[in-house]
Structures are given as C-alpha cells and as structure tokens.
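Record type: monomer structure entry
Structure origin: computed from sequence
Chain ID: A
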Amino acid sequence: MSIGIPPYLLLLIAILLIYLLDCIVVLYANEAIVKPHASGWQVEFGSRQPWVAGKRIHLLNPFTPLAATYRTHWNVSEHLAHADEEALARCARHVALLARLKAPIHACAWAVLIILPIAMLMWGALGFLLGAAICWLIVIVLLLRFFSLRRELQLGWGESALIAFECLACPPCAVNLLRKLSLRQRMGIDLVGLLADMPADRAAVAFALIGERTDARLLMMDDDTPEFAHTRAWRELIRIGHPRPAREEEPA
C-alpha cells in the first residue's frame, strides 16, 4: 500500500529547495566570501574539493539573507598584500546603500518562507492563492525600491531587468536579492590585506586555509617553472611570517 504525499507538501519542499539552491555560490580556487562583521570581517571558503570545472561551491547561510556578502580573492606576489583603504571605504558605502533594501527583503522572506507554507498547509489551494498574492505584492514593492537605487548601484537597465524577472518568476530568489547584488560588486581588495584587521585567531584559520589551497595548486604545477618558485616563495611568507601579514613600520 503506497502512501501519497500531499501536493502542497511537495510544493513546500520545492520552495525550500529552490531557496537553498539559490544560496549556493561557485568560487574560483583563489576566491573566498567575506561579510562585514563587528570585529572586522567574517571569511568563508568554498568546499575543500573542486566540484564544477575546477571551481568550488559554497552554501551561504540560509538564515542570513540580509547579510551583505562579497567575493574577494588572493594573489600570489612577492609581498603580502595590505588593505586598500579606498576600496574598503567604497565597500562600506555599498553596504550602507544595500541596507535600504533590508525592510522589503525581510518582509519578502517572511511571506515566502513562513506565511506561504503555513497558508498552504492550513487552507490548501485557497491558502496557496492568498499566500502567493501576498508574496508577489511584496516582491513588486521590493523591486520598486530596487529600481529607485539602480543608478546608485551602478546597474544598467538590461542587468536590472534580468534581476527583476528572476525575482518575479521565482519569489524564493527575491529573498536573496541583497546578497545577489553584493556578490556582483567586486571589492578590488586582496583577502590577505583584509586579514590584517581581523582578530588573530580568525586570521590564523583563514591563513591556514589559504595555505591549503596554495599547496594544492603547487601539486598541480611543474616544479621547474618560475611560476612554481614564485608561488612556493609566497607560500613560505604565509607559513613563517605571522598568522596575519606584518605591516611596514611607519617613520617616527
């Protein structure tokens, strides 16, 4: 005797899966995710093993859709990088701009992930229609706010239209709008430079993971090439230097 699964339960599962899939980010081997934090920055790395064409995947925290989330990278060079104050200031202004989207995104998250599922489970088809109407109404309000910020976000009409279409066609994706916009914004900051302003324990963990990624890269390289020697020397800077990059001494 087979037990049928109620269709509205399947729809609820589909909504949650779509949202979780939308939280997945694909990163290059030398990329990481950073988020503004009260004590500096919070750094998150992708999977230890490559999944897609040598790239790594990372699942963003599904419970923090209002957290601005940026891509950053690290470059192999002769010296450890330092933080770019101008780039950090631009990032701070971008975070403040995105904060103006938080209220409608918060309402959208409640409508899509809480109100709609409860309405479906309690009232079936009628609940779905009412919940969906509320979701799309809030998404429209969110997109109106988004388009009012389009120029300040430096987005073209075509790019903005694609984002709007995705949100309207799939409201669970609208919940991640703030993170989508911040991920599109290139920080132009080397991750090693950011680590200089992080607490020592968190910086040490991040340096260890950068070293792990660099070791994996060295294994794939021919050890007779200048690039191998250059990369290995940079790796030693991380290994023997500090859990964070040392700053140049300022003249007295």
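Annotation 1: Confidence is low (pLDDT under 50) at residues 243-252.
Annotation 2: DSSP finds nine helices and five strands in the chain.
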